[in-house]
Write the C-alpha cells for this entry.
Amino acid sequence: MTASPIPAVWTERHRLHDPGGEVWVGVPIPGTEVVARGDLIRDALAAAGFEIVPPAEHDPEHLHRLHHPAMVEYLRTAYDAWVAAGYPEEPGQDRVVPYVFPLPQAVADRPFRLPAAPSARAGVYTTDTTTLIGPGTYRAALAAADAALTAAELVLAGAPAAYAACRPPGHHAGRAFFGGSCYLNNAALAAQHLRDGGRGRVAVIDLDAHHGNGTQDIFYDRADILYASVHVDPGAGWFPHFVGYADEAGRGPGAGANRNRPVPPGCGDGPWLEAIGDLCAAAGACDALVVSLGVDGAAGDPESPLGISPAGFARAGEALARLGLPTVFVQEGGYDLERLGGLVVGTLTAFAGAHP
Amino acid sequence: MTASPIPAVWTERHRLHDPGGEVWVGVPIPGTEVVARGDLIRDALAAAGFEIVPPAEHDPEHLHRLHHPAMVEYLRTAYDAWVAAGYPEEPGQDRVVPYVFPLPQAVADRPFRLPAAPSARAGVYTTDTTTLIGPGTYRAALAAADAALTAAELVLAGAPAAYAACRPPGHHAGRAFFGGSCYLNNAALAAQHLRDGGRGRVAVIDLDAHHGNGTQDIFYDRADILYASVHVDPGAGWFPHFVGYADEAGRGPGAGANRNRPVPPGCGDGPWLEAIGDLCAAAGACDALVVSLGVDGAAGDPESPLGISPAGFARAGEALARLGLPTVFVQEGGYDLERLGGLVVGTLTAFAGAHP
C-alpha cells in the first residue's frame, strides 16, 4: 500500500448522540463516551491525510439480520415514549435510564410480557445504567451502522482496507441486548455485509480493551464468522463482567469459532501482542477481516488498566496487515481524548505500511 | 375473640435498615420505605392496646429452606465488600447500588460466573436500583424474618392469630432474587414454618398493593402452599412489571395453587373486596393462613393508585377472619405515614372482631 490509502468513513451525525453522562452504581457521572471523541478522530485522520468519506444510508431493515426487530423498534421509540410519559427532565436527566431488570431467575419459565411502563421497559434490553438514550441516540447509532456498512462496501468494491469512525461504538450490543455505551453492533453488521457480499468466511478480531459480548452473542452459533477477542480479564473485575472468559468457544455449528484471550490488568504490550498473534493465527483461514478497533487498552486510558503503548498498537496493526485479508476497521472504544486520534491514525498507518 | 387479642411481634432492630433513599431511573430520590414506618406501626399498636412481643432469634440456616444460600451470603457480606472496594461514599451514596445486570438474553446458555467486581456482583440478585444495601440491612432483614417466624410460632402454640411488624418488607424477595425494598421473604418463611409445624396446607393471601413476585416464585411449583394475591395490574404499568398476571397459575405440582387477581388503578373498595372474596374462597381448604398485610393500597398512599378506604381494609380483615383459620399477619408495604398505623390497627381489629 501507499501511505494512507485507507478511506475513512465519518459523519457528523455522530454528534446527535450526546448521552450527557451516565449512571454508575447509582451515581450520575460525566461518562467517557463523549461527543468530542468523534470529532477528535476525524481531525486526526484529516490531518494525517486520510480521505474522509461520508456513509451511504441503508434501510434500517438491514439491522434485523442481526438484531431482534423488537429491540430496534425499542431503540427507535424509547426516548419519545420517555418524554411523553413525563419522566424526570432535570438537567442531565432527560435520558432513558433503566431501574428494574428481568433477571433470569426472576422471570424464567414464567409468562413474560413487555412491561407497560416506559420506566420498566427501559430494563428489558439494556444490560446496565450506563447506556442512556437521548433524543438523537437512535439516529446516531443508525449513522454509525451506516458507516460500518459503507466501509464494508468499499472493501467489497476492491479497497484493500477501509475504516469506519463509528460513534456510538457497537461491540457490547447483542442480538437482543445493548449496553456498555453500545446500541447497534457496527462490527457485526460489517462482517455480515462482507458475508452477504460473497466472502466465504469472515473473522472479527476485537482489539478493544473490553470483551465484545455483543459480537460474541450474535455469532456464537455460527461457523462462517469467527469472533476472536483480546481484552482485560473479566474475572479480574472488568466489564462486561458476566462473559468474556477463555472457555467460551462457540456452540453448535459455531463451536470453535469463538476465541477469547483475556489478559491481566497491567499486562502491557508483550502479552497483549502475543494474544493478538494467536487471534491472527486463528483467522488465517478466513477470506475477509473486520477489526473492532478499540484503542482503550492504551496506557493512560481511563477505562482500562492494560497499559498498551502507541508502539504496541502499531505492532498490532502490522500483525493484522500480515494476514493479507481485505479488512474493515470499525471504531470501538478509546477514551483518552489527548491520545485517541493519534492511536487510531498510528494503528491504521502501521497496518497500511505492512499490508501486502 | 376479645378486643385486641392479637400479639404483635416487633423489634427496634428494624432501625438498623436505613436505606437512605433509592435510585429510580437514574435519579436519587428519598424513597418511601423509611425507618419511621416501623416505629409508627409500633406506636399505633401500643396505643390500641396490642401486646408488643419481641421476636425470638433463629439460626440464619433457616433461610436456606426458601432462599438460595448464595443470595443469603451475598446479603450478609455485600455492604462490607462494597466499602472495602472503595465505592462512592458521598452523602447518601454509601449504599450498595447495582448498575449492570445479567439479562437472560445476554447470559443464557453461556458459562455464567459470579462477577469479581462488587459493582457487578450487586446486579446478580437484585432486580432493581431501588433496593439498596446499607450497613445494617442484613441484620434488620434477619430481625424481620425472626418476627415472622415468631408470629408463626405463636400461632402454632395456639394463638388464633399473631402479627409480625416486619420491616424491611419481604414479598418481592424470591428464591434467588430480591428487590422492591424487600430482601428476605418474611411471609414465605412464616408459611413454611407453619408447614414445618404440622399444618397440612397453608394459604398466603397477599393484600399489598403490588404483586408479591417473590412469594409467587418461591411457591410456584408447590401444591402445599397456595399463593393468592390482589394487586394493581402490572399490565397497567405497575411494579413488579414483569409478573403478576392472572394467567400465572402455578407449575407442575403447584398448578392451580397460584392465584393472581390484578385490579385496575383507581378501582376503590368494590373490585378490591370482590377479588379478596375470590382469594378467600380459594383458601377455604387450607389449614392455616398467612396474610401479607400491605396497606399501600390505601387512598393517599404514594406507592399505589388503588384508592382503598379504611373501611375497605376493615372489610378485608373481616373477610379473612371468616375463613376461621389460624392466621399469621406479616407486614408488607404501606407508605402514607399519616395513616399507616391506623390502617394496620384497623385491619387487625376488624379481623379480631370477626374471627370465630
Notes: Residues 211 and 244 of chain B are 5 Å apart (CA to CA). The two ends of chain B are 7 Å apart (CA to CA).
